[in-house]
């Protein structure tokens, strides 16, 4: 009898975490490494949010809470959804989990049966397919290339839907590409979904507040109210509020689904950290002005990275609408040999040689389902980004 579960063979560790861990190890060994793999802001949690956490500790709010969130946070989330997205939820339609990842996982675990299909546009966040597999479902990836700015078309969505489709996972702005769907582009997708009432929508809005230029964020249930009763609108405080380590995610959806997700959570983690929940109340209800400042900072970094990477031989880097990632195409580098002697057969070889020869850590595109590309997280200092891009330019110039 095997000791490890057969389920484990269906999934793999997160490549983004692996790259970040590798970069940290090399730094600890004294190597000159610039890590562009981590998907988290490089600035601190705002002081008012930290102060709210301290008040919660001092007030003794350190006990177990309701499994899927304190009433104060659920109320704050309801206010956020109505204020920013025009979506009216009651507290019974809200769930709070230990990070956005748990929210998505709970929903899949609560709904997927063997044979159920989940449509996932690629490039995708690395965890989507593996979470579907863990839940017993079948991920159906739909490749969206650079020719459509990495966005899913209505025609491709229509073609992917079958009688077995349970969920459609939607992420805008996207990790890993930063691509954002306009309200019109999203409406074209929701029109397709309205014709298939058995398909549920899981909208991952984690990068909602990180959009640039004149781009306007929109979410499916807002664009098409007819989908409200079969949409799980997911979000969290990690990215916009620089609270990645606090581990608070949330979602709004139909009561039946929310209750089922709570059942899963009650037998896994139980409640999210009590102190983090009170901090999240302040994040959602408190001053929001710093979001504008952070957007300006990220937009400047985006423009810097896009400009410098497009000057690298063999690289084409689209200019994304949001998040803090770019997803350059390296078709012009494939088949060449690096100065260190590595044959660049694919984007994994490119990323490995780049790290070995220049100390720049990026995540290879195959991890996200579309190649040949790599992902850069520009959630780091301007100086580090400039130096990293110079090294990438030099590396590409040395390919023969």
Automatic annotation (TrEMBL):
SUPFAM superfamilies: PLP-dependent transferases (SSF53383)
Cofactors, names only: pyridoxal 5'-phosphate
Alphabetic keyword roster: Aminotransferase, Pyridoxal phosphate, Transferase
Organism encoding this protein: Albidovulum sediminicola
Reaction(s) catalysed by this chain's protein: L-aspartate + 2-oxoglutarate = oxaloacetate + L-glutamate
Coiled-coil stretches: none
Molecular functions per Gene Ontology: transaminase activity
Domain Aminotransferase class I/classII large: 31-392
Family: Belongs to the class-I pyridoxal-phosphate-dependent aminotransferase family.
InterPro entries recorded: Aminotransferase_I/II_large (IPR004839), AspAT/PAT-like (IPR050596), NHTrfase_class1_PyrdxlP-BS (IPR004838), PyrdxlP-dep_Trfase (IPR015424), PyrdxlP-dep_Trfase_major (IPR015421), PyrdxlP-dep_Trfase_small (IPR015422)
EC number: 2.6.1.-
EC primary class: transferase
Name assigned to this protein: Aminotransferase
Alphabetized Pfam families for the sequence: Aminotran_1_2
């Amino acid at each position: 009898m095997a000791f490890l579960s057969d389920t484990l063979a269906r999934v793999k560790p997160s490549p983004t975490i692996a790259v970040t861990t590798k970069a940290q190890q090399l730094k600890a060994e004294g190597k000159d490494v610039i890590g562009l793999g981590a998907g988290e802001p490089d600035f601190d949690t705002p002081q008012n949010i930290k102060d709210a956490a301290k008040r919660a500790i001092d007030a003794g709010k350190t006990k177990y809470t309701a499994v899927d969130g304190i009433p104060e946070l659920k109320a704050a989330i309801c206010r956020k959804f109505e204020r920013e997205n025009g979506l009216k939820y009651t507290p019974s339609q809200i769930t709070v989990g230990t990070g956005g990842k748990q929210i998505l996982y709970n929903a899949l675990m609560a709904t997927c049966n063997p044979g159920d299909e989940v449509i996932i546009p690629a490039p995708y966040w690395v965890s989507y397919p593996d979470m579907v597999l863990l839940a017993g479902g079948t991920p159906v990836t739909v490749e969206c290339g650079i020719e459509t700015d990495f966005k899913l078309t209505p025609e491709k969505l229509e073609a992917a839907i079958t009688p077995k489709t349970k969920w459609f996972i939607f992420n805008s702005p996207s990790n890993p590409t930063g691509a954002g769907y306009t309200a019109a582009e999203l409406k074209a997708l929701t029109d397709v979904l309205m014709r298939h009432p058995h398909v549920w929508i899981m909208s991952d809005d984690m990068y909602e507040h990180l959009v640039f230029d004149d781009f306007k964020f929109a979410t499916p249930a807002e664009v098409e109210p007819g989908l409200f009763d079969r949409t799980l609108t997911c979000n969290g405080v990690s990215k916009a509020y620089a609270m990645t380590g606090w581990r608070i995610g949330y979602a709004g959806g139909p009561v039946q689904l929310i209750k089922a997700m709570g059942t899963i959570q009650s037998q896994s983690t139980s409640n999210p950290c009590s102190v983090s929940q009170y901090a999240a109340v302040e994040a959602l209800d408190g001053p929001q002005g710093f979001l504008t400042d952070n957007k300006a900072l990220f937009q400047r970094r985006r423009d810097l990275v896009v400009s410098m990477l497009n000057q690298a031989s063999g690289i084409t880097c689209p200019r994304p609408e949001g998040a803090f990632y770019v997803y350059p195409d390296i078709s012009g580098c494939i088949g060449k040999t690096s100065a260190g002697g590595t044959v660049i057969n694919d984007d994994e070889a490119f990323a490995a040689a780049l790290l070995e020869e220049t100390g720049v850590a990026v995540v290879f595109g195959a991890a996200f389902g579309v190649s040949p590309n790599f992902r850069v997280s520009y959630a780091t200092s301007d100086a580090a980004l400039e130096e990293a891009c110079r090294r990438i330019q030099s590396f590409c110039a040395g390919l023969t």
